[in-house]
Write a structure and sequence with these properties.
Keywords: Membrane, Transmembrane, Transmembrane helix. 76% of the residues lie in helices and 2% in strands. By secondary structure, it is an all-alpha fold.
Length: 391
């Protein structure tokens, strides 16, 4: 009996760890990203709550329907795209319109496999360089925070660095705990009294073509290339055949539903999915779906904490929250840079993409992520043609 109980506990424990570590690692990034594109504190809390509910429902349905540990999560690199779009004077309704365009494109990738293949065929060096360019300013925030608020920021970075060596999975959640303590020191505890149970606030979308190109398309590209593709790889590595149509349609529908209440996007999990789909979840691969079911159930009470999360982010010095966000995506920056520069033939195109995106330039109302991809694509095509002509 004890042995059976312990093996049943394994996937439940894996789902719990994936939910807590996934939420704690990047909820501040989601809130900050939504605020950066025009959301009020209440709308940002609504968006986080909505995205948690979307993750919960899709994970529960996937677990019960497919009986495999196919797991969904919010788009962490997508939230970084939003944060990178700060100070562009975006109305939140326009941002929500861009989110919806992204959701429809993900849905179409599931319904029309040719589109999905076309998107995933975007050269990896360019997609990775674009993501690296988006992440760089965010990953500089810990350095800036230590320089401007050393007494508050330095302990956060030190705790993250120590646990990154000893217990990497808990490095960012622990840094977030230290950040909360720093907020209490800096702002007292009054901020907690402003927190309430989050309300789902409907946000009527409006569609600005410039915002769709600046926010919606980069959000779509990083969600597909940075999350969905690695998510399929995680599943196949652990011996599961994840149905692409189901995964992308569920991601598109879940994202679209969350969009109407301020959420940005959901996608296949990668790091958290590895926790639930791997052998440490359960020795019997046919029982690992219990981890995804547990994960989905836990995201409901986690979502109810969105009001408290919003109050925390609103009370904290903005550079402190961005610093924690930077620590959360440091691993993504490292892998993006490695992937971008892996092929020597495409390094120039990748570096130019990275530099243009990281510059944050806005030309004719369109943000740098689009221009970075365009410049990188043109350079890659030109150099490829030149090499063929020289042969």
């Amino acid at each position: 009996m004890a042995q059976g109980g312990s093996t049943v506990f394994q996937p439940i424990s894996a789902g719990f760890v994936a939910a807590i570590s996934g939420f704690a690692s990047s909820f501040a990034l989601v809130i900050a990203g939504l605020v950066a594109v025009g959301a009020t504190s209440a709308e940002a809390s609504s968006g986080l709550f909505a995205i948690c509910l979307a993750v919960a429902i899709t994970n529960i349905v996937a677990a019960l329907w497919l009986r495999i540990p196919l797991a969904f999560a919010w788009s962490t690199p997508g939230a970084a795209v939003l944060l990178a779009a700060a100070n562009n004077g975006i109305r939140f309704s326009d941002a929500v319109g861009a989110f919806l365009v992204c959701a429809v494109l993900i849905l179409l990738c599931g319904l029309w496999p040719a589109l999905g293949r076309a998107i995933t065929s975007i050269p990896r060096p360019l997609a990775s360089a674009m993501l690296a360019g988006v992440l760089l300013p965010i990953c500089l925030a810990p350095i800036q925070a230590v320089a401007t608020l050393p007494l508050l920021a330095a302990p956060i970075v030190i705790v993250w660095l120590v646990l990154y060596r000893l217990a990497p999975r808990w490095a960012v959640p622990a840094a977030m705990v230290v950040a909360i303590a720093a907020v209490v020191i800096a702002a007292g505890t009054d901020w907690a009294t402003t927190a309430s149970v989050p309300q789902l606030i409907f946000v009527g979308p409006t569609f600005d073509p410039f915002i769709v190109v600046s926010v919606g398309l980069p959000l779509f590209v990083v969600t597909m290339a940075g999350q969905n593709v690695p998510g399929f790889v995680v599943m196949s590595t652990n011996g599961y055949l994840a149905p692409p149509r189901f995964a992308l349609v569920a991601s598109g529908i879940g994202s679209g539903a969350a969009n109407l209440f301020g959420g940005h996007a959901i996608n296949l999990g990668a790091i958290t999915a590895a926790i639930m789909a791997g052998p440490e979840s359960h020795p019997d691969r046919n029982k690992r779906w219990i981890a995804t079911l547990t994960n989905g159930i836990l995201y409901i009470p986690l979502g109810l904490g969105a009001g408290l999360a919003g109050a925390l982010v609103a009370a904290a010095p903005s550079i402190l929250i961005t610093a924690v966000a930077g620590l959360a995506v440091m691993g993504a920056l490292i892998s993006s840079v490695v992937n971008a520069l892996e092929d020597p033939r495409h390094r120039l195109a990748a570096i130019l993409t990275f530099l243009v995106v990281a510059s944050g330039v806005v030309v004719v109302g369109i943000g740098s992520a689009f221009w970075g991809l365009l410049v990188g694509g043109v350079v890659m095509a030109w150099l490829g043609w030149a090499r063929r002509s020289a042969v």
